[in-house]
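This section describes the prediction task in plain terms. A model, or a person checking by hand, is given the sequence of a single protein chain and must write out its three-dimensional structure as a string of tokens. No templates, partner chains or ligands are provided. The sample shown here is typical of the held-out split.
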Amino acid sequence: MLKIKNKQLVNLKLLITILSFICICIIPHDVQASEETISSESIMKSQQEALNINSFIQEADKYTQDVYEDLDMGELFTSAITGNIDNETIINSILRAVRWRSF
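The expected answer:
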């Protein structure tokens, strides 16, 4: 078996630490950012145009307007992306739809 003495173990740890530090310093840290701030609204609009989400939202509105009258799919999409989802409105709308279908 390989026996390592305490001094050798300390030297090995020191060597590993030094090599790790050198590797971290060698890795480039270039960040290509501009000082121009892009609003989240403009990002969402460009994504909607690029992915043709507007037509999807229009189709969703067409098929859900009878059942979910108080839900606006465009607003729901925007709130889902921004993380500001109004769960209460969604739950109430679903409950109304369930009640509507049960009669």
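For orientation: The first helix runs from residue 6 to 26.
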